Amino acid sequence: MKIVVVGKGGVGKTTIVANLARLLGREGLNVIAIDADPSLNLATAVGIPKEVADEAPVLFDEEEFIRSRTLLPDGFIKLNPKVDDVVEKFGIKGPDNVVVLKLGEVKKGGMRCLCPEYAFLRALLSHLIIGKKDLVIIDMVAGLEPMSRGAIRGVDLVLCVVEPSIKSLDVATKIEKFSRDIGVKKLEVVANKVRDSKDIEFIETNIGRKVFHWIPFDTSVIEADYRGVSLIDYKPGSPAITSLSALKDKILSILQHMYKSSS
Q1: Superfamily of structural domain 2-262
Q2: What local confidence, expressed as pLDDT, does residue 1 receive?
Q3: What does each C-alpha distance from 48 to 36, 52, 159, 214, 220 come to in angstroms?
């Protein structure tokens, strides 16, 4: 199963991805957590020591490696570049069956074409799954360019994280439109930092659809971030982790239904 977590910057995507990855790994899944956010905080949020995370290479900083996999001698782009050894070369082993891959940001500066990076990203998302016990979850960069480039075409589930703010909900509306345009199979809205039922009503009214799951505002998230540690290790019984555990169960139900439908 391939899950992409998207949304406006600051809504809590990294916290959600990191702790969902740990919870899903505890269910016996082999989880590859991909950090496609330029801040590259996913590894420490998963629970990998900062010194280990900082030493690991960032895939999109390895420009020659990307070009060697995506460019043909005549300058054309390979549509299906080799990616089957990427996790072994660049992955960082974390707790609970989680491996983190620091993808990094597709650079925006300069004059050269960004096609190699996006071709590589599309291939990576298409070919990383091996078996029923494997799951990929991506902390996607904030913004709409990966959507407009079709980078997440073919994923199984898009979780669009929102918070009770108009800017967040405007981005979510645009993400949903792009998802329909590129044929995303399933998109669900996850509301984060929810204080009360009025927040849910505000979100649902402004996006015109039901919230799939909501996570309460939890000061433990801020405290864990101050300490630079994983929330699931800092306060495993916190309200946010309790809610994320319920979200994990919903995802497992979707996964089970997928395999029943394909068998």
Answers
A1: P-loop containing nucleotide triphosphate hydrolases (3.40.50.300)
A2: 87
A3: 17, 7, 24, 27, 19
